[in-house]
Amino acid sequence: MVSPLMMKKSHELLIEANKRIEKLELQRRELALELQYLAQEAREQKSIVLEIYQALGLKRTDNNDAKPIIRLFKYLNAQIGYEPIGEAKA
Fold first, then answer.
1. What contacts 77, CB < 8 A, 6 or more positions away?
2. Which of 4, 16, 60, 86 lies at a CB distance of 3.0 to 4.6 Å from 53, suitable for a disulfide?
3. How confident is the model at residue 43 (pLDDT cuts 50, 70, 90)?
């Protein structure tokens, strides 16, 4: 037979466990929402980068980054004799 004290302690532990489960479930839902938000933001950023590549007539691949755009801007700047601040030759 279970004593009243043990039953009370079991009940308290069960309540604590349920509170912890609820807290973890809330955290899981919050993380899921944050993940959805970040995924949408990443898709938007990818779309913007693709638009930039297309506007500049560059081909976008999975492994290139800003380097092709930087090279193009450096080339175009050289064509017009423009030296960006901080890159002037000594």
1. 83, 84
2. 60
3. very high
d(CA 83, CA 55): 23
**Structure-block tokens of residue 30:** 């919050």
Please tell me the distance from the alpha carbon of residue 17 to that of residue 4, in angstroms, as a whole number: 20
Task: Find the largest Cα–Cα distance for the chain.
Answer: 93
The upper half-sphere exposure of residue 84, i.e. CA atoms within 13 Å in the direction of its Cβ, equals 8
Q: How far apart are the first and last CA of the chain?
A: 91
pTM: 0.61
Side chain identity, residue 47: S
Residue 42: both structure tokens together: 């990443």
Residue 39, pLDDT > 50, answer yes
